[in-house]
Amino acid sequence: MPIEFKRSSAVFRDVVSVEEAEGLLEWLQRKPGAKVDLASCSHLHTANLQVLMTARPRLSGWPENAQLRAWLETALNPGA
Amino acid sequence: MTPLLEQFLSESREFSQGIGEKLMQMEDAPSDQGLINELFRLVHTLKGNSGLFTFPEMTRVLHAGEDLLGLVRNGQIAYSRELADRLLDAMDFVMVLCGDIETTERIDASRAQDSGRMAESLRALMPEAQTVQSDSATSSGKSPKPTQDAHAAELPPLAEVPEAMRIEALRQCHQGETLHWICYTPAPDCFFQGDDPFFSVRQTPGLLWGSAKPTEPLPPLAELDTYRCLLKFHLLTRASREELDEHYRYVPDQVRIVRVEPRWLSLSEDSSAESTQPVPAIPQGADGLANLLPAAPLQKIAEPSNSTADDKAAALESILSAQQQILMLDDRPDWGVGRLKAVGSVLLNLAKAAGDQVAASEVEAVLAECLATGQSSLLVLWLEASRDHLIASHAAPPGPPAPTPSNAAASPSKEPKESASETDADPAKPATDEAIKFGRRAEDNATGPRSLKVDQAKIDRLMNLIGELVVSKNALPYLAQRAEAHYGVRELSREIKGEYSVINRIADEMQDAIMQVRMMTVSFVFQRFPRMVRDISRKLGKEVQLVLEGEQTEADKNIIESLADPLIHIVRNSLDHGLETPEVRRACGKRETGTLTIRAAQEADRVVIEITDDGKGIDPAIIKRKAYEKGLIDEAALERIDDREAVNLIFAAGLSTAEVISDLSGRGVGMDVVRSAVQKINGTVVIESVLGKGTSIRISLPLSMAVTQVMIVESDGQLFGVPMDNVVETVRVPRSDLRAIKQSLTAVLRGRIVPLKALNTLLGISAGPRANSDDELAVLLVQAGGEVLGLLVDGFNETIGLIQKPLSGFLSGLSAYSGSALMGDGSVLMILNIREIV
Q1: pTM of the entire structure?
Q2: Residue B281 to residues A61, B278, B287, B528: CA-CA distances in angstroms?
């Protein structure tokens, strides 16, 4: 499973495809305060990106992939 | 060219052809659901196939066509001629692209515009709602694709680029790099097409910086539609325009690429409100900027480094040994320069990351020298020497260690493992994709074609060889005769004859088989007519129904090919002059839709093609008058010729009955060209017409040009061949029955007066015709140009089939002979050209 849903956090692994987006959205809608761990994620599909951008969950881990991390930093923290 | 690509090309041609045919059929049955389904399936398959390769230009047009047909299929829009026109145009375009691919194995990027226009024109036929949904990818929406120039005037929002990045970008600009700003707004429904815009954005070549933004305010989480793309991407890259066009070739209508002017970078810097410490002045040279680099602004966004010094040293160690290994490789000498550059830039980045300017300049110097000499040894030595120093300087960094987000990717010092796994993953992905697609193709090919394509030159060679075999085989009976007559060995003679009959049989069969290979169906010529008739009749405002019959009739390839031009002329003439406009037809009490029938059939050893229309027919009186006016016939002929002959006068040169000369016909050359083209391949053409009822043109052609049936005649001790096409009959006439009318000899045969001419006289041989013991003369009745004539010869020999060789070189001026052939005994037989000598 590219996304492992734990009690209060979702762990992204490797490449998270478009099929995961629906599940991610539902999960985040159910758990407003949940955290997302992207540390071992190497790529996530645009659909997932826009779910994260809409939901703005707290991140418990930034991607280890520096390029992805840079992207997510600008996308998820537009003000900073 | 790969076999797959070849297969694709031949299939595409077939499909385009099929699509064209189906569209024509739809004209007659616009509501035939079966046809629409078939049409949709063809376009869909073709589109799918084109997707296997990187031909987005083709895919885009086909995709638009598929969408359009989808709507027709669902009854949302009705089939119209307009629609068929555009689809046919699109198919023509696909054929053009196929041609491109065949010659260059790729589609030039310049086709992208045409492709966009083509797709646009197809989409324009769709109802509004559909257009918006599938085309509103960009803000430009349904309006024609805005030119990039118009956008170029609009300044990209460079202010959103972090300041440090802008300084880096400016530095690169001053180093001579050209930067581009890309605004990529994916189509909202792009996820359904399997696109991952974020992925392609991340793969953009030369990426410096990028950001993802919502195109509209994001909805509350509860209302978010996961499958609609709401994002757009802004990127700054140092890749060239070509690279970017190539990278985004699938979505040219969704990206905007603007070349970044260096001053924009500095301008936005000044106007940037958040800029806390303005850069004192715009540095003029690269040197000044290089000094600026490790300064304060970079530190601002430098990432906190959480790895320990030991981890770092180990990572560095592995990077450096990797570089060393790369330099040692010598498997591909032609990659040497590229490897040197790669290693050089890694070392340079390492040195810069450590803030070690001395090492950096050393690397540059050594690299330049290595590149100049083409030897990597210097760099290897430097690496050995500076290894420890580099590691040490990283362990205790004098400057900020971490690079900016963008060149973090370029300097592998931080994430050697990650970048390695990424490069590993990349080739793996397309590989699996490909495997899946190939699997599907394999299924398609399970019932693969059992025919093979052969170069015509190879068949021609076979043809020549069998010709020679036939000739040398014919030498055997002579040998048998000699064995008996000259050497007196009857037994041997009989055995040779026995062997001869076996070889004869095999050679005949072989010849037949090779002729079969050269056979083609007339559909090769016929298939272009539906489209042609449709186009021309629409242009002329006529309603024409085309009926094709006997498309499977076969004839030699050369015959079929030389048939194309005459047929086109005839069909054009029929459409232009023969068939009337619907109003006229209604006035005459005919059906509004005219019928044009093209029928092919085999009759004995000839192919007969009949083109019949139910138009207004030809008025023999007009033809006669015109021919007389043009001086083609004299007054006597005007009185004498009957209607049938008069109608056939239209084949004479310089006769046109059309009042106006159109771009289709009417210049008075058409039918003349038809006759000469048909005669060139030993065919005949006859026209029959009933005024007010229609016209029928009948072309009769030999099945094959390769073997000519020839009757051998003897005259003054020489043998000549007369083509059987010309021979009417052979008779022996008693000398007493000959009548002289003035200078010319005549005889009455079967109640007709037949003029007689001696072959010897015609060929300039002084000897007279020789009679046989009963004082009878041999008369060969031949027909030439519709007239029958008796040739006086000395005797008749057998009829043989032979392969005629045209006279070439100095002999080609001898119009009395149409060619020569080699006989079995090695002698040369001259074939008479009857039409020329009489």
Answers
A1: 0.45
A2: 39, 8, 14, 71
How large is the ipTM? 0.90
A6-62 pLDDT, tens digit per residue, is: 888 888 888 888 888 888 888 888 888 888 888 888 888 888 888 888 888 888 888
Side chain identity at residue B832, one-letter code: L
C-beta of residue B252 within 8 angstroms of C-beta of residue B180: no
Q: What residue type is B447 in one-letter code?
A: T
Which pair of tokens denotes residue B120?
Answer: 């646009």
- Out of A22, A28, A43, the one facing B199 most closely (by C-beta) is A43
Is A21 near chain B, with CB under 8 Å? yes
Contact A71 B212 (CB under 8 A): yes
**Residue in the block written with tokens 């020839």:** B710
What's the count of helices (H) and strands (E) in chain A, helices before strands?
3, 4
Report how far residue B613's alpha carbon sits from residue B547's, in angstroms, rounded to the nearest whole number.
10
B522 touches chain A (CB under 8 A): no
CATH topology of domain A3-72: Transcription Regulator spoIIAA (3.30.750)
Which residue of A28, A71, A78 is in closest CB contact with B202? A71
Q: Which residues from chain A sit within 8 angstroms of residue B406, using beta carbons? A: 70
B226 touches chain A (CB under 8 A): yes
Res. B610 pLDDT band, cuts 50 70 90: very high
Residues B817, B720: Cα–Cα separation, whole Å: 10
| pLDDT tens-digit readout, B579-604 | 888 888 888 888 888 899 999 998 87
**B192 → chain A, closest CA residue:** A18
B75 near A CB under 8 A: no
